[in-house]
From TrEMBL:
Keywords: Cytoplasm, DNA damage, DNA recombination, DNA repair, DNA-binding, Hydrolase. GO terms for cellular component: cytoplasm; Holliday junction helicase complex; Holliday junction resolvase complex. GO terms for biological process: DNA recombination; DNA repair. This is Holliday junction branch migration complex subunit RuvA. InterPro entries: DNA_helicase_Holl-junc_RuvA_I, Hlx-hairpin-Hlx_DNA-bd_motif, NA-bd_OB-fold, RuvA, RuvA_2-like, RuvA_C, RuvA_C_sf. Homotetramer. Forms an RuvA(8)-RuvB(12)-Holliday junction (HJ) complex. HJ DNA is sandwiched between 2 RuvA tetramers; dsDNA enters through RuvA and exits via RuvB. An RuvB hexamer assembles on each DNA strand where it exits the tetramer. Each RuvB hexamer is contacted by two RuvA subunits (via domain III) on 2 adjacent RuvB subunits; this complex drives branch migration. In the full resolvosome a probable DNA-RuvA(4)-RuvB(12)-RuvC(2) complex forms which resolves the HJ. The keyword Signal does not apply.
Protein backbone atom coordinates (compact mmCIF):
# COMPACT_ATOMS: atom_id res chain seq x y z
CA UNK A 1 0.00 0.00 0.00
CA UNK A 2 1.15 3.56 -0.71
CA UNK A 3 1.45 5.36 2.65
CA UNK A 4 1.88 8.85 1.21
CA UNK A 5 2.99 10.72 -1.88
CA UNK A 6 5.18 13.82 -1.79
CA UNK A 7 5.24 15.94 -4.93
CA UNK A 8 4.01 18.97 -6.84
CA UNK A 9 0.29 19.61 -7.34
CA UNK A 10 -0.19 19.73 -11.12
CA UNK A 11 -3.97 19.82 -11.52
CA UNK A 12 -7.10 20.41 -9.41
CA UNK A 13 -10.75 19.90 -10.33
CA UNK A 14 -13.97 19.38 -8.31
CA UNK A 15 -13.42 15.63 -8.03
CA UNK A 16 -9.70 14.93 -7.77
CA UNK A 17 -6.17 16.30 -7.88
CA UNK A 18 -3.07 15.20 -9.76
CA UNK A 19 0.25 15.18 -7.92
CA UNK A 20 3.52 14.68 -9.80
CA UNK A 21 6.29 12.61 -8.27
CA UNK A 22 9.40 11.63 -10.26
CA UNK A 23 7.70 12.21 -13.59
CA UNK A 24 4.55 10.25 -12.70
CA UNK A 25 1.20 11.97 -12.21
CA UNK A 26 -1.00 10.33 -9.57
CA UNK A 27 -4.75 10.87 -9.80
CA UNK A 28 -6.02 11.16 -6.23
CA UNK A 29 -9.65 11.55 -5.15
CA UNK A 30 -9.95 13.77 -2.11
CA UNK A 31 -12.78 15.22 0.02
CA UNK A 32 -12.11 18.88 -0.79
CA UNK A 33 -9.74 19.13 -3.77
CA UNK A 34 -9.51 22.92 -3.52
CA UNK A 35 -7.62 22.65 -0.24
CA UNK A 36 -4.71 21.83 -2.55
CA UNK A 37 -3.24 24.57 -4.73
CA UNK A 38 -1.36 24.13 -8.00
CA UNK A 39 2.24 24.91 -7.14
CA UNK A 40 5.27 23.61 -9.02
CA UNK A 41 7.70 25.29 -6.66
CA UNK A 42 6.77 23.49 -3.42
CA UNK A 43 6.08 19.86 -2.60
CA UNK A 44 2.95 18.65 -0.83
CA UNK A 45 2.50 15.49 1.23
CA UNK A 46 -0.76 13.60 0.70
CA UNK A 47 -1.63 10.63 2.93
CA UNK A 48 -3.15 8.03 0.64
CA UNK A 49 -5.40 5.00 0.78
CA UNK A 50 -5.45 2.54 -2.11
CA UNK A 51 -8.95 1.21 -2.74
CA UNK A 52 -9.12 -2.07 -4.63
CA UNK A 53 -12.22 -3.89 -5.84
CA UNK A 54 -12.86 -6.16 -8.82
CA UNK A 55 -13.64 -3.23 -11.10
CA UNK A 56 -11.96 -0.37 -9.22
CA UNK A 57 -8.39 0.61 -8.44
CA UNK A 58 -8.23 4.13 -7.05
CA UNK A 59 -6.17 6.33 -4.76
CA UNK A 60 -7.83 8.50 -2.12
CA UNK A 61 -5.84 11.25 -0.44
CA UNK A 62 -6.04 13.30 2.75
CA UNK A 63 -4.23 16.14 4.47
CA UNK A 64 -3.72 14.13 7.66
CA UNK A 65 -3.34 10.53 8.78
CA UNK A 66 -6.31 11.05 11.11
CA UNK A 67 -8.65 11.89 8.24
CA UNK A 68 -7.45 8.84 6.36
CA UNK A 69 -7.98 6.63 9.41
CA UNK A 70 -11.60 7.79 9.76
CA UNK A 71 -12.17 7.28 6.02
CA UNK A 72 -11.00 3.66 6.34
CA UNK A 73 -13.28 3.13 9.35
CA UNK A 74 -16.23 4.53 7.41
CA UNK A 75 -15.56 2.17 4.49
CA UNK A 76 -16.07 -0.74 6.86
CA UNK A 77 -19.63 0.37 7.58
CA UNK A 78 -22.22 -1.38 5.44
CA UNK A 79 -23.79 1.14 3.03
CA UNK A 80 -20.84 3.54 2.87
CA UNK A 81 -18.51 3.50 -0.13
CA UNK A 82 -15.62 5.78 -1.07
CA UNK A 83 -17.89 8.54 -2.40
CA UNK A 84 -19.92 8.55 0.80
CA UNK A 85 -16.78 8.56 2.91
CA UNK A 86 -15.41 11.56 1.02
CA UNK A 87 -18.68 13.47 1.46
CA UNK A 88 -18.59 12.89 5.21
CA UNK A 89 -15.01 14.16 5.43
CA UNK A 90 -15.42 17.06 3.01
CA UNK A 91 -15.65 19.77 5.67
CA UNK A 92 -11.99 19.15 6.39
CA UNK A 93 -12.09 17.79 9.96
CA UNK A 94 -13.61 14.65 11.50
CA UNK A 95 -14.54 15.98 14.95
CA UNK A 96 -18.22 16.71 14.38
CA UNK A 97 -18.79 13.30 12.83
CA UNK A 98 -17.20 11.64 15.85
CA UNK A 99 -19.41 13.60 18.21
CA UNK A 100 -22.54 12.71 16.22
CA UNK A 101 -21.65 9.01 16.36
CA UNK A 102 -20.82 9.11 20.08
CA UNK A 103 -24.05 10.96 20.88
CA UNK A 104 -26.09 8.75 18.50
CA UNK A 105 -27.21 11.85 16.61
CA UNK A 106 -28.91 10.21 13.63
CA UNK A 107 -30.54 13.49 12.56
CA UNK A 108 -27.11 14.95 11.90
CA UNK A 109 -25.69 11.90 10.16
CA UNK A 110 -28.57 11.55 7.67
CA UNK A 111 -27.78 15.02 6.32
CA UNK A 112 -24.81 13.57 4.45
CA UNK A 113 -25.48 12.47 0.84
CA UNK A 114 -26.35 8.80 0.59
CA UNK A 115 -26.74 8.32 4.35
CA UNK A 116 -30.24 7.23 5.30
CA UNK A 117 -31.55 6.21 8.71
CA UNK A 118 -30.41 2.62 8.26
CA UNK A 119 -26.85 3.63 7.36
CA UNK A 120 -26.71 6.22 10.15
CA UNK A 121 -27.76 3.58 12.66
CA UNK A 122 -25.14 1.20 11.26
CA UNK A 123 -22.45 3.88 11.64
CA UNK A 124 -23.37 4.26 15.29
CA UNK A 125 -23.48 0.51 15.93
CA UNK A 126 -20.15 -0.13 14.21
CA UNK A 127 -18.14 2.91 15.30
CA UNK A 128 -19.41 4.23 18.63
CA UNK A 129 -16.69 4.04 21.24
CA UNK A 130 -13.99 3.28 18.67
CA UNK A 131 -13.16 6.73 17.29
CA UNK A 132 -12.15 8.86 20.27
CA UNK A 133 -9.13 6.64 20.79
CA UNK A 134 -8.40 6.81 17.08
CA UNK A 135 -8.62 10.62 16.94
CA UNK A 136 -8.06 11.87 20.49
CA UNK A 137 -7.27 15.44 19.42
CA UNK A 138 -10.29 15.98 17.18
CA UNK A 139 -12.15 19.26 17.65
CA UNK A 140 -15.88 18.97 18.23
CA UNK A 141 -17.04 22.41 17.04
CA UNK A 142 -15.98 22.41 13.41
CA UNK A 143 -19.34 23.28 11.90
CA UNK A 144 -20.12 26.18 14.20
CA UNK A 145 -21.05 29.37 12.36
CA UNK A 146 -18.72 31.14 14.79
CA UNK A 147 -15.75 29.17 13.47
CA UNK A 148 -13.47 31.77 11.96
CA UNK A 149 -12.45 31.57 8.32
CA UNK A 150 -9.45 33.65 7.39
CA UNK A 151 -9.53 35.19 3.94
CA UNK A 152 -6.23 35.41 2.10
CA UNK A 153 -5.20 35.77 -1.52
CA UNK A 154 -7.01 37.17 -4.51
CA UNK A 155 -10.70 36.36 -4.87
CA UNK A 156 -12.16 35.56 -8.29
CA UNK A 157 -15.82 35.09 -9.14
CA UNK A 158 -15.54 31.54 -10.45
CA UNK A 159 -14.41 30.20 -7.07
CA UNK A 160 -18.04 29.97 -5.96
CA UNK A 161 -18.88 28.10 -9.17
CA UNK A 162 -16.02 25.68 -8.49
CA UNK A 163 -17.32 25.11 -4.98
CA UNK A 164 -20.82 24.39 -6.29
CA UNK A 165 -19.43 21.79 -8.71
CA UNK A 166 -17.46 20.18 -5.88
CA UNK A 167 -20.63 19.92 -3.77
CA UNK A 168 -22.42 18.20 -6.66
CA UNK A 169 -19.54 15.71 -6.99
CA UNK A 170 -19.93 14.93 -3.28
CA UNK A 171 -23.56 14.01 -3.92
CA UNK A 172 -25.54 17.04 -2.75
CA UNK A 173 -28.69 17.67 -4.76
CA UNK A 174 -28.93 20.83 -6.86
CA UNK A 175 -32.11 21.89 -5.04
CA UNK A 176 -30.25 21.74 -1.70
CA UNK A 177 -27.34 23.76 -3.08
CA UNK A 178 -29.62 26.38 -4.65
CA UNK A 179 -31.13 27.16 -1.24
CA UNK A 180 -27.79 28.33 0.16
CA UNK A 181 -26.32 30.05 -2.90
CA UNK A 182 -27.83 33.50 -2.08
CA UNK A 183 -26.11 33.48 1.31
CA UNK A 184 -22.82 32.32 -0.19
CA UNK A 185 -22.86 35.11 -2.76
CA UNK A 186 -22.72 37.61 0.10
CA UNK A 187 -19.25 36.38 1.07
CA UNK A 188 -15.90 36.58 -0.68
CA UNK A 189 -13.97 33.39 0.01
CA UNK A 190 -11.56 30.98 -1.60
CA UNK A 191 -13.04 27.87 -3.22
CA UNK A 192 -12.12 25.57 -0.31
CA UNK A 193 -13.64 28.09 2.13
CA UNK A 194 -16.86 28.30 0.10
CA UNK A 195 -17.11 24.52 0.30
CA UNK A 196 -16.62 24.53 4.06
CA UNK A 197 -19.14 27.36 4.55
CA UNK A 198 -21.66 25.57 2.33
CA UNK A 199 -21.29 22.38 4.34
CA UNK A 200 -21.87 24.31 7.55
CA UNK A 201 -25.20 25.42 6.14
CA UNK A 202 -26.18 22.11 4.52
CA UNK A 203 -25.51 20.14 7.68
CA UNK A 204 -27.54 22.38 10.00
Amino acid sequence: MIEFIRGHIEYVNPEYIVIENNGIGYKIFTPNPYLFKINKESREVIHTYQYVREDILALYGFKTREERALFVKLLNVSGIGPKGGLAILAAGEPGQVIRAIEEEDEKFLVKFPGVGKKTARQMILDLKGKLQELLPGASLDLFSEDHEINITGDIVYNELDEAIEALKVLGYAEREINKIIPDLRKEKLRTDQYIKRALQKLLK
